[in-house]
Design a protein that fits this description.
The complex is a heterotrimer, with one copy of chain A and two copies of chain B.
Chain A: H1 13-23, H2 33-49, H3 56-78, H4 88-110, H5 138-149, E1 151-153, H6 156-170, H7 176-189, E2 192-194, H8 195-198, H9 204-219, E3 223-226, E4 235-238
Antiparallel strand pairs in A: 2-4, 3-4
Helix pairs in contact in A: 1-4, 2-3, 3-9, 7-9
Chain B: H1 3-17, E1 21-22, H2 23-30, H3 36-52, E2 57-62, E3 65-70, H4 75-81, H5 92-104, E4 107-108, H6 109-116, H7 121-129, E5 133-138, E6 146-150, H8 152-157
Antiparallel strand pairs in B: 1-3, 2-3, 4-6, 5-6
The chains are: A mainly alpha, B alpha+beta.
């Protein structure tokens, strides 16, 4: 049997998030941050598997979601009335985005794709009466082409390549699962190691992923962590289950 | 100058000029000694006359400018003579960006990108090239960012006469996609 | 079809088409089942109405063709309104028109005007006089419009051997909405 998988393409991370939320038929206010993060990452995973482009905006949002998720865990534990719900900013953004998204559907319906009204062209008035043939050259033609035919010069292609390269260099998305495997491998070779060691050279996304994977491993009792004093480095050791 | 004359001069100007023209410009051309109220009054009479008789030619108002065009009812006949300029279909990204500019104008690129959550350079370029938005100066803050507004072409595209004809944004607050 | 409608359709066509048009062509566009006598009758009524009221716009008959134009009495105002803010030199206007013809040939005047957004009669005249373009027959459609092509003189002027040596348009990305 053949399955026809059609992957929806989203305009950006907000578009994707909004779609995930509307599919659940829940209000933006009621989103479960861990559920939405899970689904979001799953979609990015799918894109990666299908070898589709993942732009930097999607990756930034992924780390942002993870950040909100971890901050939300702390927020819930503390139950501090003073502190703002870490989800709030994202919700407001989504609410705002939603309005325009729906409004754009209305605009789309109003667009008439063929002119119903016809206008007149104006007479052209020129300053001088004489034409200078020296002004007509292949260079001059080249220069006005973009203005006349409203075409874009293809220098974009080079920037596109740069962008792609950038993405390959720094755009890899790090899943928590991946990090967990990485940590397990390190523990096979070392009895213990420092948290700062493994996050050396990592960007923000990766640090968050590392941190979350540590939390997961603690939960699974695969590791224990020791911190002598606040803000000191964290020592990670094999746990009882390993 | 007789009132009837003013009306006919306006008619001649609208016909010859072809593009949207403002009361102020009309006032300057017809007779600077007249008040702009008088010009506005006369053009409104003209619009009504054309409309009432369902003439082949109509005068439409776009924002604060006026333009002569053919009556929609006869579009089918005109298409027999003139190839209608087909408008391109708008992509979702273009539509969203255009909608944000329409409601939030004047607006900068960064503000648009904040709402959409993605870079908008390419889409803005497309909108500018198709004359649906225009650069309307720069903001007097760091970086002097360009501010964008929609054009009369945009109004023509979605068949409205002024921005106020857009449904208020609040109507979308509690609606579902 | 009501008589009043016929009159207004003719009005709309004359306005939008801009060029002189014959009874036969109008007949074809409005309704082939009507007699050309009927069309002629209606256009004469229209001409009379415009004349009687000394409207800003008039319909004139040239040879056996009809065209809409502004009323001579208001020529002073029209001159004032057509005075552009940013004037182009004849060379600039010519270069633009020539480029369009070079890439889009064979092309008619109306097609050129639709790309440029202005009437091009004068510029085309200059190009013909300087032997940079030539008339290459007529199109078999309403108005039998003349089609234009560039000449060998044009190739010599810009130092290329054949049209294929023009910078290819394919290297320019078509902007899509």
């Amino acid at each position: 049997m053949k399955y026809n998988i059609q992957l929806q393409v989203y305009e950006g991370p907000l578009d994707l998030l909004y779609d995930l939320i509307s599919k659940q038929k829940i209000d933006i206010k009621d989103i479960s941050i861990s559920e939405i993060t899970k689904q979001y990452l799953k979609y990015l995973d799918l894109l990666e598997k299908m070898d589709l482009e993942i732009t930097s905006e999607f990756i930034t949002m992924a780390s942002k979601l993870l950040e909100i998720k971890s901050r939300y865990l702390l927020y819930k534990q503390k139950d501090d009335e003073e502190e703002e719900d870490p989800r709030l900013e994202l919700m407001e953004k989504l609410e705002e985005y939603k309005k325009f998204k729906i409004a754009s559907q209305d605009i789309k319906e109003n667009v008439s794709y063929i002119n119903e009204r016809f206008y007149r062209n104006k007479e052209e008035i020129v300053v001088d009466e004489k034409i200078d043939l020296d002004d007509i050259s292949i260079e001059a033609i080249k220069n006005i082409l973009p203005y006349i035919f409203k075409v874009r010069i293809s220098e974009e292609k080079t920037t596109n390549n740069d962008e792609k390269l950038n993405k390959i260099v720094r755009g890899r998305i790090i899943s928590v699962e991946e990090k967990m495997t990485e940590l397990r491998t390190i523990l096979e070779e070392n009895q213990e190691f420092m948290f700062t060691k493994i996050i050396n050279n990592c960007d923000k996304d990766e640090v968050i992923a590392t941190f979350l994977s540590i939390l997961e491993l603690i939960k699974a009792k695969e590791i224990v962590v020791i911190q002598d004093i606040f803000f000191d480095d964290i020592i990670i050791k094999k746990g009882s289950e390993m | 100058m007789k009132r009837e004359d003013i009306k006919h001069i306006i008619e001649a100007i609208l016909f010859a000029y072809g593009e949207p023209i403002s009361i102020k410009e009309l006032n300057y051309i017809v007779n600077e000694d007249l008040s702009s109220k008088e010009i506005e009054y006369m053009i409104n009479i003209l619009i009504e006359e054309y409309k009432e008789q369902n003439r082949g030619v109509q005068i439409i108002k776009l924002e604060n400018k006026y333009q002569m065009c053919t009556n929609k009812d006869y579009a089918g006949y005109i298409k027999k003579v003139l190839e209608p300029k087909k408008k391109k279909t708008l992509s979702q990204a273009t539509l969203e960006t255009l909608t944000i500019i329409a409601y939030k104008q004047p607006i900068t690129k960064i503000e648009i990108e904040n709402i959409r959550g993605v870079k908008c350079d390419k889409v803005l370029q497309t909108l500018l090239e198709n004359d649906l938005i225009r650069e309307a100066g720069r903001l007097n803050k760091i970086g002097k960012p360009i501010i964008y507004k929609t054009t009369n072409e945009f109004l023509k595209l979605i068949n409205i006469e002024k921005l106020e004809d857009l449904p208020p944004l609040e109507t979308y607050e509690n609606s579902e996609l």
